[in-house]
UniProtKB/TrEMBL annotation:
InterPro entries: Kelch-typ_b-propeller (IPR015915), Kelch_1 (IPR006652). This is Kelch motif family protein. The keyword Membrane does not apply. Keywords: Kelch repeat, Repeat. It comes from Trichomonas vaginalis (strain ATCC PRA-98 / G3). Pfam families: Kelch_KLHDC2_KLHL20_DRC7 (PF24681).
Amino acid sequence: MGNDQSSQMSKPKMLDNSSYFPMAMQRVNSYNGPKRNASTTEPDENHPSLLLKTAYHGVWSMAYADGVSPIARVDQCHCLDEENNRLIIAYGCDEKGNALNDVWALDIKEMKWTNLRREAYGPRTGASSILMGRELFVFGGSRDRQYFADLHSINIDDGNIRPFDFPNCPSPRAFPIFFSCNDSFYLWGGYDGQTDDTVYRLDFHTKTWSSYPSQESGRPQAAHCFHKGKHYVYGSSKTHGLLVFDPDQNKFVGIETKGSEPPTDLMNTCLISADEFIFLVGGESTSKFMHIYALEVRRNWWFCFHIRPDGETFVVEDGIVNKMGLFMIPREFGATAVYDKAKRELISIMGSRLLTPVPVFTLAIGEALGLIHLRSDMLEIFNRDGGYQPL
């Protein structure tokens, strides 16, 4: 347990003409920023690159919200308050390594910060959270090498805190996968010096934790999202990249995917459900720059999502153009990212670069999604008609 979660650097592999080389990545442990490493995709002085014109692209931009902003941080827990279009964050770690203990709300429409609580349940980083009704339920986390197993809730309207103590709770840990399904909380993986394979379930009615064996090895710092009624997990493994939860058997099941799969050993990344896709943003790596990946869930097809700067808040020089002519943005990990359905944008805040004042990054994907849907529909029709038939 633990040792089998580290893997060697991923190697580039040849893909079909509609795909791109994945980046070579491996984990780094410092919040001070990864060191530059040679990459088959990044340019150098002998290989200048021009930005490739692509059929679609998302537009990358940045803004600053009004109001007093929170301290820049990494590894905070969060939720999206869809009822009021707010992004809630709690806890985390500042640039000096201090665990934080506050709760903040970002009004996405008005672009304004509000402090919900200065002192929460105790400083921590790497806690995991679930929004149920108007309460953010938080489990675990760590501080100064001490791991927590407490469960508490934070009311996202008034900041009120309620602790809970139920029998047979999981062991202390940071970064567990934590989600709700069928009137229960589920918890899996995380890290406390080692990983735990067991799946834990908290029944809302009996108020008791129960446990189930798992065939999948626990993942110390994987990403998770809820998409179209299913719970998906990615990363922090050298075997299966993508898992889906089977609530009937209380276990995770590996999914075989195609296309340009992101490195499966990525840690501290963000997984975001958007439209018919799951986006993967960031993750720890030796490379200073990153692609954004998208999974077309219907076909289990990974692809590199093309990006361009908006030309106002960002220009090409703020990232790099790789040897294939694709624009890459500065790498981030430990951030919080969500999808704004109204604006059809990915929104990202906080993270490993610890920028002050805290910027709000956006990636407008609405127009690009329309073109990708058209491409997918045409491909489906083509395949349904028997595909290419030689004369």
